[in-house]
C-alpha cells in the first residue's frame, strides 16, 4: 500500500511540475491565419541568418508593432511597417513636400470646405478588390466610426462627410475652411483599407491580416519573435526592390546596436545618441540622421504662482543651457531650438529667439519678480518616453539650482506622465511634442487654444485664440497663413510658457552595403526600395 | 500523502481568489488611464470616453471585477486592449518560452552548482575551493543586465559564434539560459558546499568510511542525499522566481517570455493582459511550490549504515 501511494505521489509531483508547461506545444498546431505562435516555423528561421542574403533585408525596431490596422496604429513603430501594406492618398517626401500617391489630383471649392479628389485608376488591393471611391469612403468612415474606437480618429476631425461622386472621384466636405487638407491625407492613419478584407476579418482580426494596395504584403507574423513581408508582384507603381523584409524587435538599445555590429540586422531604428560615435567608427555601418518633427521642451503650468509671472518664466529660460544639454546629454545629436515647432514642420516659424544660458540675467529677473532666494517647484519628467528623457530632467534640475530654484524631480512612466500633463497635475515638466499632420495649425488648436485638448500649460490668451480659430482658417493665401503662424508662435515664445530645449533628430543605423533606405521627417521610413551593393 | 496533495490543491482556490482581487485593485489604482495610454494623449475627451466605454472601463470597480472573474470562470482570459488578441493566445505562446528558459537555467544551475559545491567541499581550502567560492560571490553580485550584454558582446559580436536573435530554438537559448543560471548556480554551489561540509563532519559518515565504503559511495550515497533537501528547496524557490521574473534577461535578449509580456502590458496599462498574466504566474508558482514540497517529502533520506 505504502509503495503504491508513494508511486502515485511521485507521479503527481512530477505532473504538477510539468503541468504549467503543458499545452504550450499545441500552439504550434494553431493555424497561421491568426498569426498564432508557430514555434516550428520560427526555429526554421533561426537557421537562416537573413541579412546579407540577396534581396532579403532585416529591420530591427524597438518594440513589437501591436497591430497593422491603420486605424488602430498607435504610433510610427506600427505606421512604418503598415504603410508598406496600406497606402494613403498623399504622402510627404524627404523635404516634407506633399505629393499624390493613390490620388491623381484634387481641387477644392472657393471656401475650401469641399474637396474633390480624383483617384488613380486600375489599382487593385492584394486580395483583388478594386481600389475606388467606395473603398476611400469606407476607410474614412471607419476611421471616424465610434465603434472602431480609433486612438487617432482626430486625424480626420475636420471631415463632416465623405461622398462617392463616381467610381474614381471622392468628395469630402469639411466643417471649416482648410488650406492643408491634402497634407492631412498623408497621415498614415488615413490609409485606405480593402473593404472586403475588413468585412471578412472584422475589427479584432484585420490588424493581423492587413490587405492594402502597397508594394509589400504581410507574409507571416510570429508574435513575440518577428514579422516578414514579401514583395507585392502586382504592385501598381514602381515594384519593390526588397523581395523579403524581416522585421524584428529588440527593446534593449544595446541589443539593437549589437545586432547591427554583428550583421544580424541591416537597418536599426531608435539608435541612442550616446552610441552614435561608436557606430560611426565602424566601417560597416552608417548612421542616418534626419531631423524630425519632435520638440523636447520644459513646459510650465501657468495657472498658479510663481509660474504665472512672466519674469519667473523668463528667468527659468535663461537658467537653461540648451547647447550644454545638446552637447553633453544628447552627445551632440540634436538641433538647437528656436520656436515651439521644429523647422522640419512645413510653414513653421523660423529663427525665433531661444535664449542661451545667462545665469546673471536669470537671477536678476527672479529678484525683480520677488524671489531673490529662488523658490521650490515640482519638476515632472518621464522615463522611456524619448531618448535620454530621465537624464535631461536631471540636468534641468541641476541648472535650475544654480539660480536658486529648487526643483523636486518626479519621474513618471509614460502613461502616468501623459496623465499628469492632461490633468494639469504639474508645475514644471519635461515633455516631447510631435506634429502628427506636419503642419502647425492642428497642433496649435490642441496646445495653444484656451482649454485645448493638449493645452498642458493652462495657457489662455484671447488674442491667440482669435488668431488660431478665426484668422488662420480664413487666411487669404498660404503666404498670409504662414505669416499668421509666425505671429502666433512668436507671441507664445515671447511669454516663455514653454522653453524649447532641442529638436530631436531621428537616428537610424544602416549597413554600409545597403542603399535606398530613406527616413522621412514624419518618423516614417522607406523600407521597400533598398538594394545591396556587391562589395 | 494523497490526502495532503488534495488538501493543498483545494487551498489553491482561495489563494488565487485573493491574488485576483489584489492584482485587480493594484492595476486599477495605478496612475495612468488605459484610454490615454492607448490613444497617446492626442485624443479628445470624447474619443477617450468612447475608448473607455468600449472596454467597459466606465463601469464601477466591483462590476468590472465580476465581469472579469465571470469571464475567467468561462475560460475567457480577456482581450488585450493594445493588440485586440485574446490574452489566452498570448499566454499560450509566451508560457512555454519562459518555461523552456527557466528549466534550462535551473538545470545548468543545479548540475553546475551541485557539482562545484561537491568538488569544493571535498577539496576544501584548496585553490579550486577558493576560486570557485570567489566566482560564486561574483555570480551572486553581478547584475543580470550587465552579464547578459557582456556575453552577447563577446559571443555574438566579437567572436560571432551565436546569433543575437531570431527564434526560440536551442541555439538562441544558450546565452539567456547561462545569464539566468548564474545567480542560482552561485547560490546552490555555496549552499551545497556548506551543507556537504556539515554532513561530512558527522559521526555516521566517519563510521561509513571506517566500514569500508568507498569515498565516492559515501559522498554520493550519504552526504549528498542529506544535502539534497537544501538543494531542492533553493532550486524550487529559484525556479519559481525565474518563471515570474526573467524580465531583464528577456528584455536584453529579446526572448518572448512572460516577463517581457508583463512589463509591456503594465507600461501600456493593458489591464486584461496584466491581470491574467499575473494570475497565470501565481498559479504556476503555487503549483511548483506544491511539487517541491512533495518531492522534498519523498527524497527525505533514510540513513543506511550498512
Evaluate the radius of gyration of chain B: 24 Å
Q: Which secondary-structure class do the elements of chain B indicate?
A: mainly alpha
Beta-strand percentage of chain A?
15-25%
Strand proportion of chain B, as a percent range, falls in under 5%
Number of strands of chain A: 21
| Uncertain segments of chain B | 302-306
Overall shape of chain B: globular
Oligomer: heterodimer
Q: What is the 3D form of chain A? A: globular
Number of helices of chain B: 13
Helix content of chain A: 25-40%
Largest interface summary: A-B, 82 and 73 residues
In which range does the helix fraction of chain B lie? over 70%
Class of secondary structure makeup of chain A:
alpha+beta
Distance between the termini of chain A: 76 Å
* Unreliable parts of chain A: 20-51
pLDDT average of chain A, as an integer? 88
> What number is the mean pLDDT of chain B?
83
Amino acid at each position: 500500500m505504502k509503495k503504491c501511494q508513494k508511486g502515485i505521489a511521485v507521479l503527481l509531483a512530477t505532473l504538477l511540475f510539468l503541468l504549467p508547461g503543458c499545452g504550450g506545444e499545441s500552439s504550434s498546431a494553431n493555424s497561421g491565419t491568426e498569426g498564432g505562435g508557430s514555434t516550428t516555423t520560427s526555429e526554421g528561421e533561426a537557421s537562416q541568418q537573413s541579412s546579407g542574403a540577396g534581396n532579403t533585408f532585416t529591420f530591427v525596431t524597438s518594440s513589437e508593432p501591436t497591430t497593422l490596422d491603420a486605424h488602430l496604429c498607435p504610433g510610427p513603430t506600427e505606421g512604418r511597417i503598415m504603410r508598406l501594406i496600406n497606402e494613403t492618398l498623399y504622402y510627404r517626401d524627404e523635404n516634407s513636400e506633399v505629393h499624390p500617391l493613390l490620388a491623381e489630383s484634387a481641387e477644392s471649392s472657393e471656401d475650401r470646405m469641399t474637396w474633390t479628389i480624383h483617384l488613380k485608376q486600375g489599382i487593385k488591393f492584394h486580395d483583388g478588390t478594386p481600389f475606388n471611391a467606395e473603398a476611400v469612403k469606407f476607410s474614412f468612415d471607419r476611421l471616424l466610426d465610434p465603434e472602431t474606437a480609433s486612438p487617432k480618429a482626430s486625424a480626420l476631425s475636420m471631415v463632416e462627410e465623405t461622398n462617392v461622386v463616381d467610381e474614381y472621384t471622392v468628395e469630402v466636405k469639411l466643417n471649416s475652411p482648410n488650406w492643408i487638407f491634402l497634407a492631412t491625407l498623408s497621415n498614415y492613419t488615413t490609409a485606405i483599407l480593402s473593404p472586403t478584407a475588413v468585412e471578412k476579418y472584422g475589427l479584432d482580426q484585420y490588424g493581423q491580416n492587413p490587405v492594402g494596395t502597397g508594394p509589400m504584403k504581410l507574409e507571416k507574423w510570429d508574435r513575440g519573435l518577428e514579422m516578414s513581408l514579401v514583395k507585392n508582384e502586382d504592385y501598381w507603381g514602381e515594384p519593390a526592390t526588397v523581395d523579403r523584409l524581416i522585421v524584428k524587435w529588440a527593446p534593449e538599445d544595446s541589443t539593437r546596436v549589437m545586432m547591427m555590429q554583428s550583421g544580424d540586422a541591416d537597418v536599426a531604428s531608435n539608435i541612442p545618441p550616446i552610441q552614435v560615435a561608436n557606430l560611426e567608427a565602424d566601417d560597416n555601418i552608417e548612421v542616418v540622421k534626419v531631423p524630425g518633427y519632435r520638440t523636447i521642451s520644459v513646459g510650465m503650468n501657468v495657472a498658479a504662482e510663481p509660474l504665472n509671472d512672466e519674469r519667473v518664466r523668463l528667468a527659468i529660460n535663461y537658467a537653461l543651457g540648451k547647447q550644454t544639454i545638446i552637447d553633453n546629454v544628447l552627445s551632440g545629436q540634436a538641433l538647437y531650438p528656436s520656436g515651439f515647432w521644429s523647422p522640419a514642420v512645413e510653414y513653421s516659424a523660423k529663427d525665433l529667439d531661444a535664449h542661451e544660458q545667462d545665469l546673471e540675467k536669470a537671477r536678476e529677473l527672479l529678484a525683480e519678480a520677488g524671489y531673490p532666494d529662488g523658490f521650490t517647484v515640482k519638476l515632472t519628467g518621464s522615463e522611456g518616453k524619448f531618448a535620454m528623457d530621465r537624464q535631461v530632467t536631471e540636468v534641468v534640475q541641476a541648472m535650475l539650482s544654480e539660480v536658486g530654484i529648487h526643483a523636486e524631480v518626479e519621474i513618471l512612466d509614460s502613461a502616468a506622465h501623459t496623465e499628469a500633463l492632461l490633468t494639469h497635475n504639474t508645475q514644471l515638466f519635461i515633455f516631447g511634442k510631435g506634429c502628427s499632420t506636419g503642419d502647425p495649425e492642428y497642433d496649435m488648436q490642441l496646445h495653444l487654444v484656451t482649454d485645448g485638448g493638449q493645452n498642458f500649460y493652462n495657457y489662455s490668451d484671447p488674442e491667440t485664440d482669435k488668431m488660431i480659430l478665426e484668422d488662420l482658417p480664413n487666411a487669404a493665401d498660404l503666404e498670409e497663413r504662414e505669416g499668421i503662424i509666425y505671429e502666433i508662435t512668436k507671441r507664445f515664445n515671447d511669454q516663455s510658457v514653454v522653453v524649447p530645449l532641442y529638436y530631436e533628430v531621428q537616428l537610424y543605423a544602416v549597413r554600409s552595403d545597403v542603399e535606398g533606405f530613406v527616413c522621412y521627417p514624419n518618423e516614417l521610413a522607406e523600407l521597400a526600395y533598398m538594394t545591396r551593393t556587391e562589395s | 500523502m494523497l490526502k495532503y496533495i488534495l488538501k493543498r490543491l483545494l487551498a489553491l482556490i482561495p489563494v488565487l481568489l485573493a491574488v485576483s482581487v489584489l492584482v485587480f485593485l493594484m492595476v486599477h489604482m495605478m496612475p495612468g488611464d488605459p484610454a490615454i495610454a492607448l490613444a497617446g494623449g492626442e485624443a479628445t475627451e470624447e474619443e477617450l470616453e468612447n475608448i473607455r466605454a468600449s472596454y467597459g472601463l466606465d463601469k464601477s470597480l466591483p462590476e468590472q471585477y465580476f465581469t472579469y472573474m465571470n469571464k475567467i470562470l468561462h475560460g475567457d482570459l480577456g482581450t488585450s486592449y493594445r493588440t485586440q488578441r485574446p490574452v489566452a493566445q498570448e499566454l499560450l505562446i509566451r508560457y512555454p518560452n519562459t518555461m523552456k528558459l527557466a528549466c534550462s537555467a535551473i538545470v545548468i544551475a543545479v548540475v553546475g552548482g551541485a557539482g562545484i559545491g561537491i568538488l569544493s567541499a571535498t577539496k576544501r581550502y584548496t585553490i579550486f575551493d577558493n576560486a570557485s567560492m570567489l566566482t560564486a560571490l561574483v555570480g551572486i553580485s553581478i547584475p543580470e543586465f550587465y552579464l547578459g550584454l557582456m556575453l552577447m558582446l563577446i559571443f555574438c559580436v566579437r567572436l560571432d559564434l551565436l546569433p543575437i536573435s531570431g527564434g526560440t530554438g536551442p541555439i538562441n537559448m544558450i546565452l539567456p539560459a547561462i545569464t539566468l543560471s548564474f545567480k542560482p548556480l552561485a547560490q546552490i554551489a555555496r549552499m551545497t558546499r556548506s551543507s556537504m561540509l556539515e554532513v561530512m563532519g558527522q559521526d555516521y559518515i566517519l563510521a561509513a568510511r571506517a566500514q569500508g565504503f568507498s569515498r565516492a559511495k559515501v559522498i554520493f550515497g550519504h552526504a549528498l542525499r542529506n544535502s539534497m533537501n537544501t538543494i531542492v528547496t533553493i532550486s524550487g524557490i529559484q525556479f519559481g522566481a525565474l518563471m515570474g521574473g526573467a524580465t531583464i534577461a528577456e528584455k536584453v535578449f529579446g526572448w518572448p517570455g512572460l516577463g517581457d509580456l508583463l512589463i509591456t502590458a503594465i507600461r501600456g496599462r493593458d489591464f486584461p493582459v496584466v491581470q491574467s498574466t499575473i494570475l497565470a504566474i501565481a498559479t504556476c508558482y503555487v503549483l511548483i511550490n506544491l511539487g517541491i514540497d512533495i518531492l522534498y517529502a519523498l527524497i527525505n533520506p533514510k540513513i543506511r549504515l550498512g
